[in-house]
Write a structure and sequence with these properties.
Layout: H1 4-11, H2 15-19, E1 22-27, E2 30-36, E3 42-43, E4 47-48, H3 50-68, E5 73-84, E6 93-103, E7 107-115, E8 121-133
Antiparallel strand pairs: 1-2, 2-6, 3-4, 5-8, 6-7, 7-8
Length: 134
């Protein structure tokens, strides 16, 4: 299984790295990460932009799938649904806890709970990842 450090290096030059996604915990059925809510990731009012929430969660589901990929396979997101509940405030840290709902041969389904620094639910994102030949 890849390490947090090796996956963080892969993410660093990509969009998740630009956003500042920090992996905290990796397991085949669970991925945890944090994201500092910077002003450039916000909408008016100092609230984390919905697109940033979705990109954060999408990254965690993709990482979870990568942890479970057989040799010679790759992944892409085919579906994502987001329910916005609360807000991540500027200059705080949100936490994403992503758990596997299904880890199949051709698809995997992940659900990410994005929570504020106070532990309040900001969003729930459910996504499907397609597993395909590399």
């Amino acid at each position: 299984m890849p390490t947090i450090e090796s996956l963080q290096q892969i993410l660093a030059p990509l969009f998740p790295g630009l956003m500042g996604v920090r992996l905290v915990e990796l397991a085949p059925e669970r991925v945890v990460a944090e994201l500092t809510v910077r002003p450039d990731l916000c909408t008016t009012g100092g609230v984390l932009h919905g697109g940033a929430v979705m990109a954060f969660a999408d990254t965690l589901g993709a990482v979870g799938t990568v942890l479970n990929l057989p040799e010679g396979k790759r992944t892409t997101t085919t579906d994502s649904s987001t329910k916005f509940i609360g807000a991540g405030r500027v200059d705080s840290v949100v936490r994403g806890v992503c758990t596997a709902l299904h880890r199949g041969r051709t698809t995997m389904v992940w659900q990410t709970r994005v929570e504020s620094a106070q532990g309040k639910l900001c969003a729930v994102v459910t996504q499907t990842q397609l597993v395909m030949d590399a």
